[in-house]
Specification:
The chain has 8 helices and no strands. The protein is mainly alpha-helical. The model has no long low-confidence stretch (mean pLDDT 87).
Length: 245
């Protein structure tokens, strides 16, 4: 069994709780919450790879699986962003199209298509996986900022509602997610991330020790913001679930 840090373990527990609550929330509440809830559930699925690797699961030997986890993470933030855009339109017009089944089937279709794409192409090696991971983090950083702005607009529309505080909490979630994914992207851009270290070790190259203080600070921000994002996401859905039942 491989080592798993306490931070990774606690983060996975938090995202597991957030994922379970959000999935139940999507089933037990109105259609307008479905995309938002499913997006948070997909984050949990994308983070499962950390546990799978720590447990030395035999399927983790296939690099396609790691690529699929990155893609699930990218789909998660896109689904969430679509959900918050839907909610903003609903808060202004009280109109909403589609059904829950359409949302579920659309997400499933995108994921199946992504899996097919990964397996019909060459098996991704470390440089390719790193590129896919950077695409995921870039998408998260940009769309987290978009979601913060959309949530602000939603709050202004519903500030007199009983669930208004729930959207303030969602804003906190996305600030934490921005720091979580942004710090990881920063490490990747400057080649300070774990995957790049593996590439350099395979080439027999020693990484320079310059700016290691900044690297360590970014790692601390990444771990702390990841914990806060999972904890606040689960807490937000528990709060909304209690209000809307």
């Amino acid at each position: 069994m491989a080592d798993i840090s306490t931070v990774d373990l606690v983060q996975i527990i938090f995202w597991f709780l957030a994922g379970c609550i959000s999935f139940y929330f999507s089933i037990d509440n109105a259609r307008v919450w479905t995309s938002i809830s499913m997006g948070f559930f997909l984050i949990f699925l994308s983070q499962l790879y950390v546990v799978e690797k720590a447990l030395d699961a035999p399927w983790t030997a296939y690099t396609q699986l790691e690529a699929i986890h990155y893609i699930i993470g990218t789909v998660a933030i896109m689904v969430m962003t679509h959900g918050f855009q839907e909610y903003y339109i609903f808060s202004r017009t009280l109109e909403l199209g589609g059904s829950k089944h359409v949302v579920y089937l659309s997400i499933l279709g995108v994921l199946v298509g992504s899996v097919i794409f990964i397996f019909v192409n060459p098996e991704p090696q470390y440089p390719v996986l790193r590129n896919i991971g950077m695409i995921e983090n870039s998408t998260w950083v940009f769309l987290s900022l978009v979601n913060i702005d959309i949530i602000r607009k939603i709050y202004l529309q519903i500030r007199d509602s009983v669930i208004a505080n729930g959207f303030i909490a969602f804003g906190v979630v996305f600030v934490a997610i921005f720091l979580w994914k942004g710090s990881e992207l920063y490490l990747q851009v400057y080649n300070w991330d774990y995957d790049w270290q593996i590439i350099m070790q395979n080439l027999g190259v020693t990484l320079p020790e310059q700016f290691m203080g900044r690297r360590q600070f970014s790692l601390v921000v990444h771990d702390a913001a990841g914990l806060v994002s999972g904890l606040t996401a689960g807490g937000t859905f528990l709060y909304l679930l209690r209000l809307l039942r």
